[in-house]
Write a structure and sequence with these properties.
single chain; 206 residues; 5 helices; 5 strands; 15% strand
Length: 206
């Protein structure tokens, strides 16, 4: 049978909170911030308190957007044994640390917004050169789209089309055929009649 202390230990609830502080870019957080946090959180019977650490630099931190982009964000995580609402703790810390309220935020550690504090690091990309391709990604072994065989077939195709084009023009009179071989658009005759010549009329043209 469990003792009273064991029941109390199992039923004990802890409160995880995260404190965020905005510091101008290039400046350091208060060097005594860890000692100050230890003193402040004693009133809530803390289980653990982390040291202040700087988050990865972000272009525009969501909770400090009003301060522009020239800031760094430091966080302190605390696990408390006594309950306290984040907004109450925030107001108390603002007064205790004597800093503007817009430079300090407190949230529950389980708040979804905290997931934006430390985004997943991008995976390293592997080099393309020297990679063994498989399936459809690999080069075509039949030389269909590249290589000497493809170039040779391509030139042969151009040559054959050139001969077909020349043959077609020769059967239709060609582009350089004489005037007499052209078909008149009006009469449909191959030879366009010359009234002066056909009737034997004298003209100035020889």
């Amino acid at each position: 049978m469990k003792s009273l202390n064991e029941y109390l230990t199992e039923s004990k609830k802890q409160y995880d909170l995260r404190v965020k502080m905005a510091v101008p870019l290039g400046e350091k957080v208060d060097p005594d911030i860890d000692d100050k946090m230890d003193v402040f959180f004693k009133r809530y019977n803390p289980d653990t308190i982390s040291s202040a650490r700087k988050l990865m630099t972000q272009t525009n931190p969501l909770e400090f957007a009003s301060q522009g982009t020239a800031i760094d964000v430091y966080i302190v995580d605390a696990k408390l044994n006594l309950p306290v609402a984040p907004h109450i703790l925030q107001q108390q810390l603002v007064e205790y640390l004597s800093i503007p309220e817009y430079k300090l935020k407190v949230r529950n550690l389980a708040d979804p917004l905290n997931e934006l504090d430390e985004p997943d690091e991008p995976k390293e990309k592997e080099a393309i050169m020297g990679t063994d391709y498989s399936g459809d990604e690999g080069p075509k072994s039949d030389g269909r789209y590249y290589g000497g065989d493809y170039n040779s077939d391509f030139l042969k195709g151009l040559e054959s089309r050139k001969f077909e084009f020349a043959k077609t023009e020769s059967t239709q009179g060609g582009a350089d055929a004489g005037e007499g071989s052209k078909t008149s658009p009006l009469s449909g005759q191959n030879k366009i009649p010359n009234p002066g010549k056909d009737l034997g009329l004298k003209t100035a043209r020889k």
